[in-house]
Specification:
By secondary structure, this protein is of the alpha+beta class. It contains 31 helices and 28 strands. It has six domains: about 70 residues, Helix hairpin bin (Helix Hairpins, Orthogonal Bundle), CATH 1.10.287; about 240 residues, DNA ligase/mRNA capping enzyme (D-amino Acid Aminotransferase, Chain A, domain 1, 2-Layer Sandwich); about 90 residues, OB fold (Dihydrolipoamide Acetyltransferase, E2P) (Beta Barrel); about 90 residues, no CATH class; about 150 residues, no CATH class; about 70 residues, BRCT domain (Rossmann fold, 3-Layer(aba) Sandwich), CATH 3.40.50. Helix 1 runs antiparallel to helix 2 and helix 20 packs across helix 27. The protein starts with 13 loop residues before the first helix and ends with a helix. The protein binds 2-(butylsulfanyl)adenosine (IVH).
């Protein structure tokens, strides 16, 4: 509390007023954030209102204090609503993870095989610490800092230019004669350990909440509307990557980072160029050994392909580059007591056990919840009776003393049990057989393909299960889906309970007053409950009407912004099983809008494989090549060739394949041929294969799509939604490219690049790559050894190119 607080406003000096204003503003901001985002008020209503009145009085007496960023105008804003948005011209990506030496070896091997490098061909990498801070993109035009943006969702971040300018390690002007016209320099903002301790000490003195770790403190310090708060925090910056930079100052990762140093940035002194997996691992161990004495948090080592030309060839998968990986340090462990097991029901009906723990600090973060994965994990055996966790005893019981493991940003998990501390009366845990929310049966599906039971138990309530409905809605508005600002998990729960939102379309048809009263009601109930829990009576007073209105305004503004959405986001938002972000993106590249997708799925649904085909396809040892041969044989039988000759015409099959056929259809080859004939008749058609044999989509996702759109209710939900939102096509990948929108098939051997690289390049240039030739194919790229695809393409009059012609076309 400030010393001046007791003095009447009229008697304050400007200096005193300024100091008090700053403090009040910070306290109110903290209270707002606790109240609006965490639903965890840290002030009672009376003191909150007193602080607010005092702030307004100060601003009336000293108008100079009422700057653009004053909290008196900003209430209830979630932090991401506070800043203007900046769209990244080059997306800010994340990194894939490696946890073991073997993972690192696999990464290097993936890079080598993607590039088609021979045994002897060398390849260089850089290795550098992975700083545990927050990434920032700095844009320089003609050498002058013009903007700074946080990562945000990778496509759009927050404009923190004013804040970044207060960081002494971020140059305002770059020096050197090789600074390009446009240079977006990216790196990590972080806080050193000593500075972090100092900040928390000051928070304590002021009675404000402390930060859990240096990363949170750095983020909280950078994302401040009051720039003077950022300026007072000793934030630091390491440069290690870049975004838009039409002219790069070097040909290697290492060289560009060296240039950053010349231009005036700090770069990490532990970065090193490495020539082999051995070198990388050696660097990893060295950095790990220095971790404790570096003075700042790191959570792993990042490896990047050094040659920029190779980085370009390798490109990206989903949101991470193929040319880099983060080798994480091992997880941290702590011991605590398992107080209860709570069962949460997810959007697909999965019953997930969550460990409620006596709070414990693991690697600097307080953990009170951890995952127990599934029923088998608690029991310690899988459905085939095999042990799934190490150590004794196999099972986990409430009351047990357990080890909790937390690895980086991954959800903590219960790792093992200390049997010596098990209470005498602890009973084995009974996993519920009914949904704890809707009481429908909860079952473990049997997978006929593997002969095993799914490890996950699911509620069979489907649409009648409120937990599934509400989780689907949360998923719908979540960051990687529609990303609706102002509508998070809590608001969805409120709106769902008030019956204002039952399905996605309802979100776009909300009534202002209804939302407002639902939110007000819920907050009041919560506050009453807290007073009741504390054994106190809540004083009668004016409700915080104004703040409530602000929160509702934000919600409506967020919703309005999403009436136009990107197609891949909308597909992903529907929460169809097996349709993750990557598959949604792949679908969006193949269909122009939602009706087009539905038509494609419907067509596929009419050409699904029949049981006879599936029976053949599922046989062990029968891969795609043998299957095709067997089908050809079957078709001849269908054309009624005499069964006596079955044998003679039988395709070449190895021992294992023959055994598989014998076990399935008996010893007589004419039975096999009959089965082959039935399979041929039941074979899937081209509209099904268009999706199912596409390596980016596959049969599982295709089946799931068909099942989803067969359900009339799901179609209704989507139709209603499409009356509210419009989609824009997927990221416009290189519209100008000569192959944009074309469907390409590769066949035969490619000599200049691997299949994987050829496919990735084609997709980057906006083409769809398919594995089968059909009337939809535009170009067939045929290398030596091309077979039936080439003859099919000729028949269909498709444009056929050699690899050289293809490279010429895309160059
Ligand atoms: S490179 C395209 N290098 O890690 C690759 N990232 O998990 C861009 N990070 O969002 C990232 N230290 O915030 C890179 N030396 C380093 C890093 C680093 C920390 C962070 C960064 C990124 C995240 C990805």
């Amino acid at each position: 509390m400030s010393e001046s607080q007791a003095i009447p406003v009229a008697e304050l000096t400007q200096r005193q007023a300024r100091a008090e204003h700053k403090l009040l503003a910070a306290e109110i901001a903290a209270a707002d954030s606790a109240y609006f985002q965490d639903d965890q008020p840290i002030l009672d209503d009376a003191s909150y209102d007193a602080k607010r009145r005092r702030l307004v009085a100060l601003e009336e007496a000293f108008p100079i204090l009422k700057d653009a960023a004053s909290v008196s105008d900003k209430v209830g804003a979630k932090p991401s609503g506070k800043f203007a948005k900046i769209r990244h011209r080059v997306p800010m990506l994340s990194l894939g993870n490696a946890f073991t030496d073997e993972d690192v070896g696999d990464f290097v091997q993936r890079v080598r095989s993607f590039l088609g490098l021979k045994e002897e061909g060398g390849i260089a990498f850089t290795a550098e610490p992975k700083i545990d801070g927050l990434s920032l993109s700095l844009r320089y035009e003609k050498g002058t800092l013009v903007s700074a943006a946080t990562r945000g969702d990778g496509e759009e971040g927050e404009d923190v230019t004013l804040n970044a300018r207060t960081i002494s390690e971020i140059p305002h002007v770059l020096s050197g004669d090789d600074v390009p016209e446009i240079a977006e320099v990216r790196g990590e903002v972080y806080l050193g350990h000593a500075d972090f301790a100092g900040i928390n000490e000051r928070q304590r003195e002021k009675g404000l909440p402390e930060f859990a770790n240096p990363r949170n403190a750095a983020a909280g310090s950078l994302r401040q509307l009051d720039v003077s708060i950022t300026a007072a925090r000793p934030l630091r910056f390491f440069a290690y990557a870049w975004g838009e930079m039409p002219v790069v100052p070097a040909q290697t990762q290492f060289g560009v980072v060296e240039a950053f140093k010349r231009w005036g940035f700090r770069t990490n002194p532990l970065m090193k160029r490495c020539e082999s997996v051995g070198d990388l691992l050696e660097r990893y161990r060295l950095i790990e050994s220095q971790r404790a004495t570096l003075g700042y948090d790191i959570d792993g080592v990042v490896y990047k392909v050094d040659e920029l030309a190779l980085q370009t060839r390798l490109g990206f998968v989903a949101r991470a580059p193929r040319w880099a990986i983060a080798h994480k340090f091992p997880a941290e462990l702590a011991t605590t007591v398992l107080e209860a097991i709570e069962i949460q029901v997810g959007r697909t009906g999965a019953l997930s056990p969550v460990a409620k723990l006596r709070p414990v600090t693991v690697g600097g973060v307080v953990v009170s919840n951890a995952t127990l994965h599934n029923e088998d994990y608690i029991r310690g055996f899988d459905s085939k009776g095999e042990r799934i966790r190490d150590g004794e005893p196999p099972d986990i019981r409430i009351g047990d003393t357990v080890t909790v493991k937390r690895a980086g940003d991954v959800i903590p998990r219960v790792q093992s049990v200390d049997l010596s501390k098990r209470p005498a009366d602890a009973l084995p845990y009974e996993f519920p057989k009914h949904c704890p929310v809707c009481d429908s049966d909860a079952v473990r599906e049997h997978n006929p393909q593997t002969g095993e039971f799914d490890s996950v138990r699911r509620c069979t309530g489907g649409l009648i299960c409120p937990a599934q409905a509400v989780e689907r809605l949360k998923h719908f508005v979540s960051r990687s889906a529609l990303d609706i600002d102002g509508v998070g998990d809590t608001n969805i729960e409120i709106l769902f309970e008030a019956k204002l939102v039952q399905s996605p379309a309802d979100i776009f048809k909300l009534n202002y007053d209804a939302v407002r009263s639902a939110m007000e009601k819920r907050r009041n109930e919560q506050i009453d409950a807290r007073f009741a829990a504390a054994g106190k009576v809540r004083p009668k007073k004016e409700k915080k009407k104004e703040e409530e209105a602000r929160a509702v305004d934000l919600l409506f503004a967020g919703i309005e912004q999403r009436r136009i959405v990107k197609l891949p986001r909308l597909i992903f938002a529907l929460g169809i099983r097996h349709i993750g972000e990557t598959t949604a993106a792949a679908l969006a590249r193949r269909f122009k809008d939602m009706p087009d997708l539905i038509a494609g799925v419907d067509a596929a649904g009419l050409q699904q494989p029949g049981a006879a085909y599936v029976a053949l396809d599922n046989l062990p040892s029968i891969g795609p090549v043998a299957r095709e041969d067997i089908l050809v044989w079957g078709r001849r039988e269908a054309k009624s060739e005499t069964p006596l000759l079955a044998h003679l015409a039988m395709p070449k099959l190895n021992k294992a394949q023959q055994t598989a056929l014998r076990q399935a259809f008996g010893a007589d080859p004419s039975n096999w041929q009959a089965a082959a004939a039935a399979a041929a008749l039941a074979a899937p058609g081209p509209d099904y294969l268009y999706l199912a044999s596409d390596s980016e989509i596959g049969a599982v996702a295709t089946e799931s799509l068909i099942e989803f759109f067969r359900e009339p209710h799901n179609r209704e939900v989507v139709t209603a939604l499409l009356e509210q939102v419009r989609t824009e096509p997927a990221e416009t990948v290189a519209q100008e490219s000569p192959i944009a929108g074309k469907t390409v098939v590769f066949t035969g051997t490619l000599e200049q690049m691997t299949r994987g690289e050829a496919k990735a390049t084609a997709e980057r240039l906006g083409a769809k790559v398919s594995s089968s030739v059909s009337a939809k194919t535009d170009i067939l790229v045929a290398g030596p050894g091309a077979g039936s695809k080439l003859s099919d393409a000729k028949k269909l009059g498709i444009d056929i190119k050699s690899e050289a012609e293809w490279l010429e076309l895309i160059r």
